[in-house]
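In this section we turn from sequence analysis to structure. A common task in structural bioinformatics is to predict how a protein folds when a small molecule is present, because the ligand can shape the pocket around it. The inputs are simple: the amino acid sequence and a SMILES string for the ligand, here flavin-adenine dinucleotide. Study the lines below before reading on.
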Amino acid sequence: MSATQDDDELDQRATDKLRWNGWGYEDTEFAISQSGDVYLTGQRYSSAGELPSFRGWVETDLGIDLRVVAPSGPFPSHLPEPTKNEPWVKEAEGNYGKISFDPAERLQHSHGHTAQEIFRLRYGWKPEYRIVDAVVYPREHGDVEKLVALCVKHNVVVIPYGGGTSVTYGLSPPDGERRMIISMDMSLMNKVKWVNKKNMTACIEAGLRGILLAEKLEEYGVTMGHEPDSAEFSTFGGWIATRASGMKKNRYGNIEDLLVNAKLVTPIGVIHKEAPVPRVSCGPDINQIILGSEGTLGVITEGIVKIRPLPEHRIFGAIVFPRFEDGVKFMREVAYHRAQPASLRLVDNEQFRFSQALKPKSTAYFQSIADLLKKKYITQWHGFDVNQMAAATLVFEGTKEEVSSQQKIVYAIAKRYNGVKADAKNGKRGYELTFMIAYLRDFAFQVGMISESFETSVPWSNTYALCQRVKERVRAASRLLKVPGEPFTSCRVTQAYDVGSCVYFYIALQFQGLDDPVHVFSEIEHAARDEIFKAGGSISHHHGVGKHRISFVKQAIGETGISTLQTLKNGIDPKNIFANGNLIDPTSK
Ligand SMILES: Cc1cc2nc3c(=O)[nH]c(=O)nc-3n(C[C@H](O)[C@H](O)[C@H](O)COP(=O)(O)OP(=O)(O)OC[C@H]3O[C@@H](n4cnc5c(N)ncnc54)[C@H](O)[C@@H]3O)c2cc1C
């Protein structure tokens, strides 16, 4: 996440102060009030205010006392001096956009948002850690071309930087890189260049953040419909570089379905397709080389995407199921009938209880009564056990007729699996909470817990079993590594495809008393990924590989797959200028 000094060119949200040691804006955090309850500070989010049930959940479900036991350390006092390639600096400075050597800016551009990276910032920064040497802010495609050419000429490393929300160590400079490293921050390339309502396409610059992109397109009465949970900060270029997926992929598609053309500035020239046409038969699709390239081949500067008219109607929905297994069967049948609404997510019982704990204080007396009655209706009338039930949240979008027919089909399928329609407010709140999750991750640090999310894709036949096996493996690995208490493990099925699903896990464990929490946590995450593979899942559905999952690439695409990627990389970037070390292990043959 970046903030630059060019306030006049950026929306205020792109310049508001961000936290150096965690997620999001400085004015927003979860905190403990004098009465001992948890509340969310600031006014940005609808959940701001007291969360009266949260404390009880922490104490019973996590088994810990709610108090700050691990406040963050101060901003690192010793950051390494930048390595300067003087000929590069001389030619670049003052010519192709702003260049900064500011230590705080360099640190901010040297990490993403894995739990391990944030832990290191908060509790264990060491002066010898490598950070980028400079941050450059190109203003247009031409600046990027010139800067990349200059880096090739002087053998300077480039790491493209979008919104900084990577969860794969995608932005961290590789240890041992002795050349000067520049982070190329795309935030000043933030325009919607044009919108063509005849062809339903738009041309967008790479550095535009998701939320602002949506707002700008809305002014034209259109939407791209791509809404990853990180959309507040992640950028259009970052989405392409990581093969991102948004919550409304059922209606609009994932980024690979939305992208018509993209421009990639590489060390050997610019890769792009000439015409923004719907389909081309010309060998393997060049877009597919750009999508998921994770900053290893070049810098994406802009792209043309498909757009749709703004939906006439948007309706939220919620369904509760007696057990998670029933919900998974429901999801599979919805996919079989290709009846998915714009978004459909199923949370397991642990996450259901967690989301209930995040309900804001109900100020209206009648509201609390109504909530109580609804709970009674589900538990007593339908006989659901609150410690077993699961919930689906839904977003329907389209014309009035489309929405009404989608609702009919989906709720009829839900009934077959004993699903009961619940208060739509729960559905809406479920989606709003997605913006809160990373703030909660930081709050968890303070109370002594390290937590993370990770995802996979898996065939329907293995979906339920994979969920159970991974949670059990995390618990077993925690016991083996002598983690205090029981870890929190939870999952949700977030996407329903023809052939399978995307499953998204949260894990959290107590780190107080562990000698090397980052090592232990990484071992447990590794065990979870190993179990994912054993249970028929993939290396990643949308987070990508970065350096975090690099040891699993061979299992995912085989040795020939790796050498194909390596050959491509060597051909496009023979001097390894884009040396962030993502995707391909430099030591692999
Ligand atoms: C709280 C949270 C929620 C998330 N939710 C989702 C989600 O719902 N769906 C999803 O898909 N992901 C999600 N992610 C992961 C992350 O947001 C995505 O990977 C996102 O696409 C990264 O975009 P970014 O602009 O932040 O890129 P960055 O984090 O800045 O960079 C990511 C990688 O892409 C490269 N890169 C960035 N911009 C460019 C460019 N212009 N040209 C070439 N390479 C570039 C970088 O070098 C790096 O390797 C989430 C992450 C967090 C922390």
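Residues 112-113, 159-167, 170-171, 186, 206, 228-230, 234-235, 237-239, 241-242, 244-245, 294-295, 299-300, 437-438, 542-544, 580, 582 surround flavin-adenine dinucleotide (CB under 6 Å). As an exercise, try to locate the residues that line the flavin-adenine dinucleotide site and compare them with your own expectations.
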